[in-house]
Amino acid sequence: LVVKSGGGDRCARQAAAVMALSGVRVLELAGLAPAPLCGMILADFGAQVVRVDRMPRSAVATDVQGRGKRSLALDLKRPPGAAVLRRLCCGADVLIEPFRHGVMEKLGLGPEILLQENPRLIYARLTGFGQTGKLAKSAGHDINYLALSGVLSKLGRKHENPYAPLNLLADFAGGGVMCAMGIVIALYERTRSGKGQVIDASMVEGAAYLSSFLWKSQNLGLWNRPRGENLLDSGAPFYEIYKTSDGKFMAVGAIEPQFYEQLIKGLGLDSGKLPSQLSFPDWPEMKKKFASIFAQKTQAEWCSIFDGTDACVTPVLSFDDVASYQHNKERSSFIKNDQEELSPRPAPLLSRTPAVPSFKRDPFIGEHTEEILLEYGFTEKEIAELNSDNVLEIGKTKANL
């Protein structure tokens, strides 16, 4: 599916014509993690994504998810710069903006203006708290959004504070991925109505929506015990992570009885001499027993024992090991760009129009300013005048560090 170097770029260009989002023009206003992921997802599946970077020249590129994008550097705080973006939006399908409520309106770039000029535009607003409500103009980060979604209260071990799992759930899953899904939904709807619309993507609400199972399973008894004492939150001995003798870890997820029986067998225990699997009072002691057994062998030894079984026991792989793991290697789940940087291959796989990610390095700030403006109908004279007025930046050939 994937070729790494020069030939890969040719393959990528050829495949771009048949990728699912081929021909979709996206303008992504540079921001922090969630919006860049949203733009990268669209680019991976064939969209033509232009990252509109900030000026002045002292600006530093913070987008490490620039795969497949091009960069245009523009000073939006100056009226001529804002006017350039308005003109670009007239020829775009999607605008992704990551600013707090009111920022775009102050620039004269709010949806009421841009949608009037281009009624087909999908105007995606990706923020922490959304466009309305008490906190719409407030600052925040993943941990704050996760806290207000209710999800954070469920994460953490017994007798410990709630634990935020990096910034994956609100920023990326509830933010970037949900926004990308909203954009694709809006693009599909546009095929029938011919009209664009505004997407209000709140990371609080996105993270909450991701947790729909937690809400809808409350009556099943899965979450009626204190945090860290339930089936899926580290309470159960058969849904836990255990340390091996070489300081590595094994992940155990043997929930169903038939899988649990294979776990017990692999650990060399006799289920007839153990408490019932769902005997809550015995869980803490069983965890200690399992931990002591896992600590007697290396990760590789446990992999050998459980390989080919349905015990739901797998190694906890490091970033250094994940690409060489047999299953991942067989599926080419990880790819390298032309600078040997490793990253996950786009998902999910489409059988007929799969994503073909770019293998080129991420763009430098302003690297493609001139070619983008020419594509969007600006004349060379207009570009030269904007450049002389320091409204935009042309042709950077190195990173701005």
UniProtKB/TrEMBL annotation:
The keyword Isomerase applies. Pathway: Lipid metabolism; bile acid biosynthesis. GO terms for biological process: bile acid metabolic process. One of its GO terms (cellular component) is mitochondrion. It is an enzyme of class 5 (isomerase). Gene3D superfamilies: Crotonobetainyl-coa:carnitine coa-transferase, domain 1, formyl-coa transferase, domain 3. InterPro entries: CoA-transferase_III, CoA-Trfase_fam_III, CoA-Trfase_III_dom3_sf, CoA-Trfase_III_dom_1_sf. Keywords: Isomerase. Its EC number is 5.1.99.4. One of its GO terms (molecular function) is alpha-methylacyl-CoA racemase activity. This is Alpha-methylacyl-CoA racemase. It comes from Podilymbus podiceps. The gene is Amacr.
